[in-house]
Amino acid sequence: MNFSGTWIIVSSHELDEAHLRTDAEPHVTLHQDGDRIHGEYRFGRQRGVIEGRRHGEHHILFHFREREAFGQISGTGMATREGQRLILTLMHPKGDDITLECERRSDVDEPAPHKEADQGPLRRADEGMTQ
Fold it and tell me: 104 phi and psi, to 5 degrees?
């Protein structure tokens, strides 16, 4: 199962809607290369990076780092893919876990299959030559 893409954060049990959308559209963007996953997240005034690995078919285990006014915070987390939904939990070291429910952004973000440009009818180099 591929986790790559942009996931829009639609809700959180710990944070209200106003907090989630303080600065910009809340989202998680992930890039998958084999079992390795890296990406970034943004919600409210929180921004951070994620680095981890797939753990089974539907799960990611990761660590995260984020900067805030008082320094850098890091912790661990887990994400579970349920169809077109992603449940992401950030486990902060002081016990303030945040669970984010995300939905995959529309298929526009999915890489389109490679399609060769229509070249029209091709002509052989020797076509039209007389001997």
Answer: -65, 135
